[in-house]
Amino acid sequence: MAHNVDKVYQEAIESGLLPGVSLLAGDKNGKIIYAKSLGKASLKEGDDRPFTEDTICAIASMSKLMTSVAALQCVEEGTLGLDKDVRPLLPEMGKYDIITGFDDEKNEGIFEPDSTPITLRMLLSHVSGHEYDWFNPLLGKWRASRNEQPWTGPTIESKSALPLLCKPGTRFTYGTGHDWAGKLVQIATGSSLEDFMRARIWEPLGIENDISFYPKSKKSMKDRMADISTLNEKGEAPAIDLPTFDILFGGTDCLGGAGLFSSAKAYYTFISAVLRRDPRLLRPTSYDELFRPQLDEKLELTFNEYIMSSPAHTNFLGVRVPDSNRRTWSFAGLISKEAQSGRFERGTTFWAGFPSTVWFIDHATGICGTALCQILPPLHPEIVKLHEEFQRGVFEMVQGNKSSAEA
Q1: 57, 158, 223, 257: least CB-packed within 10 angstroms?
Q2: Residues 301, 365: contact at Cβ < 8 Å?
Q3: Mind listing the pLDDT tens digit for each residue in 271-294?
Q4: Closest Cα to residue 393, out of 16, 15, 17, 24?
Q5: Could you tell me where the beta strands, DSSP code E, fall in 159-224?
Q6: Rounded CA separation 77/81 (Å)
Q7: For residue 1, what pLDDT is reported?
């Protein structure tokens, strides 16, 4: 099966669909099951650097898992609480109340006052009422009415101080909760999210030279950074270099929801530690909380409806889990409540990042993996389909080994 995984990615690179990729998967004992890197780190003319497991990539929303771990570390220490109202600590958050519509004649939003408490639990579970402005047409109109572009500016406040879409705690909407959660970690600890993660996550795992919010300022990282490439407007090959694209859209703060850059090797080291419930990161009860479904029956229904609400939502949020599978959400990411034959067991956790990056932790099978590349359009279906084949290949290798051991 490893040969088949190699083949589909090699064909994607030869066709020009994918410039380069690094894939790593292993088991709960820390053993590497599959490791492969293919292609180039850049399509810039004259740049022939190979894409390796040490290539530094923007991982975008794959940052969220690490921010959840950092937040739970603060909860363990008592500097943050999961169920305390955090609005007083974040006065810019929710200050615009709830947007219910838009008055085209006045070119302004229509708002409903709201002072519902917002908790860290809500922020990490995407039920705080926040939604990304680039993902919501109403918020896009509100931004335009203010002569602003979605998700731009240097700070968390400039990107994420948005009108809420609903009363906190009533509906799942995918948004900026982890950026605010990262800000809470900074307030609670008195240090930057970069410094806190370095001390509490990266250095204990030995990955401090391979992950950062600021890779261009690190001598150990800047020359290893992959460049972003893009397919054409129809999502067709061949990919070309995208030299002017800034994946942070002017961001300079530590963005806990989308701002990290990492090598595949470093990120794999992290998710492997999380799979194994490494005590250097969290206590057993905190790991339980990290992976526990956070949505009640009503919220879970809104989550599944949300994924199915448009092709874009399904593409961005579905991670190719079958629509027939019931899904829920944890602080770690999406959970499939049912298995998918030949790919994963019930309870597997997933998430992904804007430049078509993914990770998975299959707790029942005892495996985890990540696939890093740097290609747009975001979470391109053909690329995510390749990553599904990677997951299937790893799953089948493990199942095959189990069958051989039992024979």
Answers
A1: 223
A2: no
A3: 999 999 999 999 999 999 999 999
A4: 24
A5: 211-212
A6: 9
A7: 60
